[in-house]
TrEMBL record:
InterPro entries the record matches: MCP (IPR002067), MCP_dom_sf (IPR023395), MCP_transmembrane (IPR018108), Mitochondrial_Carrier (IPR050567)
Protein name per the record: Solute carrier family 25 member 48
Family: Belongs to the mitochondrial carrier (TC 2.A.29) family.
Gene this chain is encoded by: SLC25A48
Organism placement in taxonomy: Eukaryota, Metazoa, Chordata, Craniata, Vertebrata
Organism domain of life: Eukaryota
Record PANTHER family: MITOCHONDRIAL BASIC AMINO ACIDS TRANSPORTER-RELATED, SOLUTE CARRIER FAMILY 25 MEMBER 48
Length: 309
């Protein structure tokens, strides 16, 4: 493990924090659309959230992701970069050797698997906090909507109470609800995240330049994020539904049951719900993520070079 570098984890933390700040409002809209609360379309969801909850509604549950997704991104970038160097060291004898596509695939898959351990509980709490203020009306369940003027009852007082409530009622397995769907989303998703980014950066970088410019990083990161999140939408829908399930109701027994019920009740189109907002949201989030990562990495290495010339 002589090639292990901690700086990738630090830079990933900065990138993760930047992405949360940029992307959380659209993430809230995405989650509510996917959970099937009868908004109809993206614009209707945006106007409804704003009318009922003002601007603050779009930032509901952001404190926990801001703290935790930064750690999650730190793990993803740190594992990916160190796995990539480890592969290159053993395959080519040089950890800084240019990676082949197969090397990037393996490093991305490893990052995807490892990320679920942290990412699943983080997403679960975020989604539960985002969804708990919504009226629990489902198209196939006869429940009376709450009368106008009465506040919707909340299930959780905050992230810590949410975690403790889930652990008390469902045990450790409850914290990892939706983990199977997340693996199916993230393992291929990170391949379509890091590989396009790597090749786009190379394409945008002029010959003779040692590293891509900030504008190249922004564009390459944004395009990679749009591709990754757009194609990950079907399993992201399943994951969101599994994790939102349990705030007021318990409908799904697992991934297959969620897919079956969703298809039976709403047709194939349900798995592509919010694909547009996923892709749109993926661009600024990932652009901010990669730019924060690369600039932090450059700063850290510059400081290290000054200390150890």
């Amino acid at each position: 493990m002589g090639n292990f570098q901690l700086e990738d984890f630090v830079a990933g933390w900065v990138g993760g924090a930047a992405s949360v700040i940029v992307g959380h409002p659209l993430d809230t809209v995405k989650t509510r659309l996917q959970a099937g609360q009868g908004y109809g379309n993206t614009l209707n969801c945006v106007f409804t959230v704003y009318r009922n909850e003002t601007v603050a509604g779009f930032f509901k549950g952001m404190s926990f992701p801001l703290a935790s997704i930064a750690v999650y991104s730190s793990v993803v970038f740190g594992v990916f970069s160190n796995t990539q160097r480890f592969i290159c060291q053993h395959r080519y004898g040089d950890s800084n050797h240019a990676s082949a596509v197969s090397d990037l695939v393996v490093a991305s898959m490893v990052a995807g698997f490892v990320s679920v351990g942290i990412g699943c509980p983080v997403d679960l709490v975020k989604i539960r906090l985002q969804m708990q203020t919504q009226p629990f009306i489902q198209a196939n369940i006869n429940l009376k909507p709450q009368a106008a003027g009465f506040p919707v009852q909340t299930a959780y007082r905050g992230p810590v109470h949410c975690i403790s409530s889930i652990l008390r009622k469902e045990g450790l397995a409850g914290i990892y609800r939706g983990a199977g769907a997340m693996v199916l989303r993230d393992v291929p998703g990170y391949c379509l995240y890091f590989i396009p980014y790597t090749f786009l950066c190379e394409w945008f970088t002029s010959d003779g330049c040692r590293s891509p410019s900030p504008s190249s990083v922004w564009i390459a990161g944004g395009i990679a994020g749009a591709i990754s999140w757009g194609t990950a939408t079907p399993m992201d829908v399943v994951k969101s539904r599994l994790q939102a399930d349990g705030v007021h109701l318990n409908k799904y027994k697992g991934v297959i049951d969620c897919i079956s019920q969703s298809y039976h009740n709403e047709g194939l189109k349900v798995f592509f719900r919010s694909m547009t907002i996923n892709a749109v949201r993926g661009f600024p989030m990932s652009a901010a993520m990669f730019l924060g990562y690369e600039l932090s990495l450059k700063t850290i290495r510059g400081v290290q070079a000054d200390i150890n010339p």
